[in-house]
Design a protein that fits this description.
There is one protein chain. This protein is α+β, with helices and mostly antiparallel strands. The chain has a single domain, classed as Myosin VI head, motor domain, U50 subdomain (Four Helix Bundle (Hemerythrin (Met), subunit A)). It has 4 helices and 4 strands. It has a two-stranded antiparallel sheet. A two-stranded antiparallel sheet has the order 3-4.
């Protein structure tokens, strides 16, 4: 695959590595497992079940793992402002 990119004129450091990191990160994001967090007084929510996979995906993407975790386990509601709410396991 690397040879194909270099044959097409892409440089190894500037193009090939970032593309491969992005593909690897997307594949790791697909392997993240989620667990249901039962709450007595609120709606159930979700949590990342296998943190090492999420940490690896965040590292490959070059983003903060805590930010990725928050965005994977919350939903955005509202029109013009951002309000993060725990992601419910129940569908409307």
């Amino acid at each position: 695959m690397r040879r194909c990119f270099t044959t097409l004129g892409f440089s190894e450091d500037e193009v090939v590595e970032p593309i491969l990191k992005c593909v690897a990160a997307v594949l790791h994001l697909g392997n993240i497992a989620f667990e249901v967090v039962k709450k007595a007084m609120e709606e159930d929510s979700s949590a990342v079940g296998n943190e090492p996979v999420m940490l690896l995906a965040a590292s490959l993407l070059g983003i903060d793992a805590a930010t990725l975790k928050t965005n994977l386990t919350s939903k955005n509601i509202g029109n013009r402002s951002t309000l993060l709410v725990n992601l419910s396991t129940k569908h409307p």
